[in-house]
């Protein structure tokens, strides 16, 4: 994001690049008038691009309780996010980075997205032992790719920490899931008889409902709010290729169906408008686990109703800088509040939904790291002066005084005299 005072892509980093790297397109340049300029790198955004990204975050409507109001964290004038909470940072890094940074060159976008997916998998509901080895191999390759792109000053202890997180997850064992066990509910015969008689002739419509740890609302209610709780998805049948079809949509109405008998029994149905689940309306990037739906294409079959207990919540985000994707929304699946989802699978679960890990990350490198618009940023004299002072201080701390050199020479001379005395004594004997 190239935030002034925070970015690691500073004049000192560019001087290090000239010293240690062969990226001539990023070296500091001196103009004919004597001014020093810094070529803008392709991994940093211009002010207009940053404002587009901040506008995306500001306009994004997420489910209630999913994050704080990110719109209040947006600073449009400077193009940055301020005052984000730790959970907000997790959401941004795990879900929004692949969308917000999609305008970057592909070979820069890929390793950044791989880091985002790694963190998302690491914090998933069930991190199976069978995929930990793949994660451990992939993060090594991804970190190496990042080291070939970003300046040397960007990498400190925190940037190399993900390499060890897989081993920590392997040794830590189950955390929240160790006391959570699946159980089966007892079905009573009387309940079955009352349900078989069918529902009452009248139904009740409501505009909000909580199920499965999610708070759902109709599209009309969510339209005028900062949050959006109307996005849903459900897994359908298996297609001819063995893949499970997922349906994504928006809640239009919430209907409560009641049954006779005592105690009172009811069932909640969502009347949804579904997007086209075919390849024309839904796309899946299996490598980076990004799902896109075309909001202008609707599901033609009339099958609007779904039971609330079978539905999970999603929200949709548009691309900020890709004009060729104006009709496409990115699907972001949200997690339930106050519960952990767990399937009846007898496998060794380690940490937190099932992680989706690709078996191998591509070893790619961007050929040039200079910005496509060839922008030159002027470097102020104060920045250069601070760098020179810091370099001189480091040289002084590593150098010896003349007195120290003299003492060392004297010590060496005394040792040599002792050796010479020993040699003379042996000759006399």
Automatic annotation (TrEMBL):
Q: Where is this region: Disordered?
A: 380-429
- UniProt domain DUF4218: residue ranges: 122-196
* PANTHER family per the UniProt record, alphabetical: DUF4218 DOMAIN-CONTAINING PROTEIN-RELATED (PTHR48258), TDCA1-ORF2 PROTEIN (PTHR48258:SF11)
Identify the domain of life: Eukaryota
Looking up InterPro entries in the UniProt record yields:
DUF4216, DUF4218
The name under which this protein is listed is: DUF4216 domain-containing protein
Domain DUF4216: start-end pairs = 255-331
The organism's taxonomic lineage, starting at the top? Eukaryota, Viridiplantae, Streptophyta, Embryophyta, Tracheophyta
